[in-house]
Batch of 4 targets.
Target 1
Amino acid sequence: GQQVMQIPQYQHVQEGEDFTTYCNSSTTLSNIQWYKQRPGGHPVFLIQLVKSGEVKKQKRLTFQFGEAKKNSSLHITATQTTDVGTYFCAAGNNRKLIWGLGTSLAVNP
Amino acid sequence: NAGVTQTPKFRVLKTGQSMTLLCAQDMNHEYMYWYRQDPGMGLRLIHYSVGEGTTAKGEVPDGYNVSRLKKQNFLLGLESAAPSQTSVYFCASRPGTSGGSVEQYFGPGTRLTVT
């Protein structure tokens, strides 16, 4: 079945450094969603990408969907301690989502 | 507007015991989901429902049953709990495909320990 690979599994940065997590699939995706889960919390929706080559920004977060719609990335500029958590990508297939394993981000103040 | 709520928040069971986890949403969402989350395993779909009275299996359905008798509620049952079912369980909901939004809204989770 369809799988979504997410790398890296963990990332440890100094506050102010940039951070990127990548999501890859061997098949073409109809759309991709990104979620953030704070430690001890539940996943919270960040954004959905649908179009080939789409780029969306939310303040310091930049989301990209590859031209072939097989990969996506989330980039955080100048990380802050509030960015700590696990970031998940999830590929939608109309009724349910196929989830990546997530990238856990730790930020040293 | 409470969103998605889950009952209970914590539970400890002994092997072989049964229990039911309750998920309730007040957003009139068509779709509801039960996930389990284990360290390093991400979110794995147990069962889901695309409307009142319907249920379908996800990727890890064995040992669990579900029911969706009312649109706002989605129950997850463990018939005979096993230590392998120790996990954090999340419920989520979203509008149907005609609703526009595809975002899943999650409950706060239930932390279950089976000894």
Target 2
Amino acid sequence: EDQVTQSPEALRLQEGESSSLNCSYTVSGLRGLFWYRQDPGKGPEFLFTLYSAGEEKEKERLKATLTKKESFLHITAPKPEDSATYLCAVQVSGGGADGLTFGKGTHLIIQP
Amino acid sequence: ETGVTQSPTHLIKTRGQQVTLRCSSQSGHNTVSWYQQALGQGPQFIFQYYREEENGRGNFPPRFSGLQFPNYSSELNVNALELDDSALYLCASSDNRGINEKLFFGSGTQLSVL
């Protein structure tokens, strides 16, 4: 069974304090790994897709990396507006369903 | 370009009733997926529709069913509601059957089953 585990469940940082969120996965065949951001009362918003080990992508203060077993979302000098739940998801190659398997998310709070 | 819109935003039903949720996909997208998100959990894949046909399904019973219309809008129907069906129901649209494509999510319908 495909599994996605995110850690920590919650993280509180001071503004400007850099950190990393972890997403470990166990799948039969990875087609892609996705990072989404979800604000309260809203649907997830796409951030990145990673396809193969060693790949990295950046957007403003966020950088996502991928290995064969896990992905990291690095947040550099975060601001209060970066507060949200960050979701990791995998899409598996083969099989009948092309849906994403999500982790439970990391609830990130950035304090001014 | 219009985003994904869902209706209603909130809904209260009693156990055993039936419910229909609606979704308008983003302009130009031919694929719609539905997800269930329980409180404190990540979204769970229910099913996907591509050009009016179901082409993928997660681990949900048959009382969860759907439709996609020629304009690519979609409905999610749930029969014989159970208390555990209380959740946020998210619709997402994409192109190319969602393969390696980012999903555009709506803000969801919050369903409460009493």
Target 3
Amino acid sequence: SQQGEEDPQALSIQEGENATMNCSYKTSINNLQWYRQNSGRGLVHLILIRSNEREKHSGRLRVTLDTSKKSSSLLITASRAADTASYFCATDLIQGAQKLVFGQGTRLTINP
Amino acid sequence: DVKVTQSSRYLVKRTGEKVFLECVQDMDHENMFWYRQDPGLGLRLIYFSYDVKMKEKGDIPEGYSVSREKKERFSLILESASTNQTSMYLCASSPYRQGAYGYTFGSGTRLTVV
């Protein structure tokens, strides 16, 4: 099974609403990262949160990390049509040979 | 400004052909990675490299090989293409070995094997 699993698999909201996506993982991590992928393109790095951090902000993005529950959430506030994309979490495992393991992603659709 | 360049956006090859996918980065990154992305399976790591002339197998290396003769270039080779290698291939790079930085991805190559 996947190390990082996003929930929900798909999310559709109205423009201006907030979008929340969750990621769960199984083993201890050095850090957790979130990426965005527009349709048919490469992934773009959004934000990185280290295992000793609990919350991080970047513009309209807010990421939380709960290592006791092995979970993270990505909140996008005041969503825009341009936020329509797939969002992936990726974990840098402590015993993972220094490579990222990606989840299957959440497909976010922002309706005008 | 493009940082990681994959040589082709779309590629169609025949079964049994030897296929080369090229990736070049201009950020002087030590680490480079090849992933494939398939619906319902997410991104799966094929091979990665921490330095010139070194390579390590990822989760699904079978049917693939790689070459890193120069720091900026990491090539993925399909020795004998098969239809089950039809996929989106993504190259990425990152600085340092500790994995404490985000990856920079190329735009991807959508390969179809017929």
Target 4
Amino acid sequence: GQQLNQSPQSMFIQEGEDVSMNCTSSSIFNTWLWYKQDPGEGPVLLIALYKAGELTSNGRLTAQFGITRKDSFLNISASIPSDVGIYFCAGQLTSSGSARQLTFGSGTQLTVLP
Amino acid sequence: DAGVTQSPTHLIKTRGQHVTLRCSPISGHKSVSWYQQVLGQGPQFIFQYYEKEERGRGNFPDRFSARQFPNYSSELNVNALLLGDSALYLCASSLFSNQPQHFGDGTRLSIL
């Protein structure tokens, strides 16, 4: 099945550093979402973006919906140990008549070193 | 408030058997979606239901079927299980089908 191009695949950073990851698609989406998944758990919604160009923050997390509607990025500032996990981007078409399913990226595995 | 609940949490089956996975959405949510997540990949869409009607189907064989009940809970059925069906099966609910989806912790299905 289709998956979005998410990079990097994995990251090792020092505690306190900032981190950035991004997601690109060959198709247009009108909603972008970012999820975090910890081992043995389901994905947890972090940020939802609804408008091209939109920049949204949730605490230390900031995400942007690309102008072309084909990309999005997520920044995490001042990383802490509990940021460890797999981060997934997901695109969604919400126009009427579409199935409105989420199309996911392949994930970014984040490791925070003390 | 209870989130999305799925049962069972783990399941072991053999090839050729069938399985039924269950999902209870967040209270008030009318849309339920099912995803398959194999190790190392993002979730893949299987089905979406809204108000008991199928609204979308992913690229999965007819061995996969689902339904939604009047209380908005849902079942995913898989027949003639194959080794490749081993995965984490995730259920997600949303208020309406175009709202952000919230996931349960999944059912880990292992096929021997």
